[in-house]
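Researcher: We're teaching a course module on how sequence relates to structure. For the next exercise, students receive a sequence and then see the predicted structure as tokens, so they can try to spot secondary structure elements on their own. Here is the exercise chain.
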Amino acid sequence: MQSGPREIVTPFRPIPLDVPEGMKPNEFFNSSENLSDLVHNNGLLQNPEGLLLYRKALGHSNEFDASIIYNTSQTILDPLGRPVRRTQVPDAVKNVWNRMNQVIFEAMLEMYPDADETLVLTGEASLDATWPLTSPGVPSIRMLHNHFIVFNKADLRAAPLADTSNPNLTDGGQHSLFQAYMREVYRAFFDELDLEILRPCQSGSCKIALTGYPQGLPSWEVTGGAESLKDVRFWKEYDTILKGFIDFYRTFFSQVSTRNAPLPRDIYFPGLVEEKLQFNNDFLKSAKMVRDRCIKDAKYANSIRWQPAFKQLIYRNDVGKLIVTISQNSIGNAITELLGVVVNRRPDADAYGQAEPALIARLLEVRRRLVEADLGQGIATPHWGAS
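Model: And here is the predicted structure for the students to work with:
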């Protein structure tokens, strides 16, 4: 079978949610009112730390699809003041969030043990307001949230190949700015990070054969598999990958913005940045190339995301190993496209209704495990009870 990205159709039940007159959808979705609706109609579990597990009403997959959001909508009313990535979350909250991630991902692997049959993934994308404000791609919920998704590989095999020029597929190696012009610098920088559980993948060994993705991205095998997700060291290394990425991204675009710029403030690895980036001719030559184009090309300059924008995920590869990868989030926003899955959501209440009972049963089982581990309390909605 031909390898290539797939475009699947995922039916959903239209949401009876009216956006107030005079507001744009992304403005309303950032509001406390919208988050209240999310809790009462799709909420599964919440805890005192402000973490909310909910069913994705506009989901990627009707096999398994849920998210945890750090719901600060009632306590931080300024959408631009809310935590939007792991590095901004208080340690006590992050500890609970990591445990929730571990419990849910372990349950997913138990429910779907065969790597030939299902693609299992979890992860998050940057929600920083780094797009041009007039762009339709400005994030719709500016609060940190992650995804838990399972795709049936039989459905992926039956799906048509996606258009490789789809803008949401341009985060991979052959398109990404980092990969195209600074591949060796990028990887050498990551190689200097202090990692024990995460081991760099050999070239090509982490791809999903069916889609051929991810393409050209730095990836790490989780030594010890799912058991390692119970080790706090794993989650610290997962954060180290993100911190390294943020340092690289901020350093590069500060040089694009201002020639010979000083070290960015509050970076995580100043010695590494100074040694491996600020004195590297390939790195600075690439920054000059982008800077020169920005000066001459207004459209190109307007597309630049000046602040760190990323997708980071954990997934199971074809031979059952767990892999961590991270990508520059250049244009696309859907995390599934990192693995070559383009989701075309279509309103179809009847088709969604056929899949809903089994989907809800799996989500409620996950909720039961979380409650048992003292990670939250169940939420009652019109569709299910609190226990």
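Model: If you want an answer key for the exercise: The longest strand covers residues 118-125. The two ends are 45 Å apart (CA to CA).
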